[in-house]
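Posted in: Structural Biology > Protein-Ligand Complexes

Title: Requesting predicted complex, NAP in pocket

I'd be grateful if someone could produce the C-alpha cells for the following input. Sequence and ligand are given below.
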Amino acid sequence: MKYKPFGTARVDLPVIGQGTWNMPEGGSARREAQRAIARGIDLGTTHLDTAEMYGAGGVEEFLGEAIRGIAREKLFIATKVLPSNASYQGTLEAAERSLARLRCDYLDLYLLHWPGAFPLEETMEALEILVERGKTRFVGVSNFETDSMLEAASYLRAVPLACNQVLYHLGERGIEHELIPAARQRGIAIVAYTPFGRGGFLRAAKGRAALETVARKHNATPRQIALAFLTREQNVFAIPKAAHVAHVEENAAAGSLALDAGDLVAIDEAFPRGRPGPLATL
Ligand code: NAP
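-- Reply #1 --
Done. Output follows.
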C-alpha cells in the first residue's frame, strides 16, 4: 500500500481507503461486511469514511462494531455532519452523537457533507472548536466547488482545510480541470468518492478494452487500474466501498500499483476528460 501526505494535514494516508455508504443492515451480509472492513484494515486501507446521514446513524454504529478491538491509532476515521445540522451549536452536537455511535473518543476527520443554508463561516468555526477540544484531528468539506472550498479554507485560522471529498471516477473527470489543481496548490487533499461510478464506466466497450489491456500488463483487474489512475496525482485519494472480503482485497491491492506514462495515455484516451463544467454530485 502506498501512502501520501494528506494535504498539509501532517499525516500520511493510504491512497486507498474504505467507504461505507449502503452497507447491509442486518444478518450474515452485515457480518461479512464487518469482516471485509477488518480485512481491509489488515491490508492497509485504514482510512474509513462514513457519515451521520448513512442509515440515519446506523452505519456509524455498524462501523463502530466493525472496528471494536482494533487499536484506535491504526485507524483514520472520517465522518460528516449533515448541512441541516451544521449551525455552530448543531455541528458540535452532531459530532458528539457521531462519536457515541462510533464508540470513539475522537475522529480523525470531520467534514461538512455538502454546502447548506447555515453560514459557512459558522460551521467552519465549530469545526475548528472541535479540533481545539480534541474531538477531531482534522476538518474538511465535501461536494464543494473550487470557490466555496477556498472560502471554507479562508475561515479556518488555527488548522488547515484538510480535504474536499468529491465525486470522481473514470466516467466523471471534470474535477481535473480546476478543482484538483487548485486544491493541490493550496495543500488540500481530494478524496474521490464513488470511484467505480456505480460500474457504468466498465460497461463502455472502448473503455473496458483499454482497462483490460493495461490490467493484463500489470497482472491486475480493470477496477484496480481505475483506482490506480484516479489516485495518480499527489493529492488524490480514493474510498471505494465494498461489503465483501474479496472486493476489499482487490481494492486494497490497487494501492500498490504504479502506472507508467503509456498506461496513463491509454486510459486518458479511452475515458476523455470532457469539458469544464459545474461540479458533479450524486
Ligand atoms: P463505489 O465505491 O464506487 O462502488 C461501490 C460498489 O462497488 C458496491 O456495489 C461494491 O460491491 C462494488 N465493488 C467494490 N469493490 C468491488 C470489486 N473489487 N469488484 C466488484 N465490485 C466491487 O460507490 P460508493 O459507495 O457510492 O462510493 C464510495 C464511498 O464514498 C461511499 O461508500 C461513501 O463512504 C463515500 N461517498 C460520499 C459521498 C459524499 O457526498 N461525500 C457520496 C457518495 C459516496 P459490494 O459492496 O457488494 O462489495
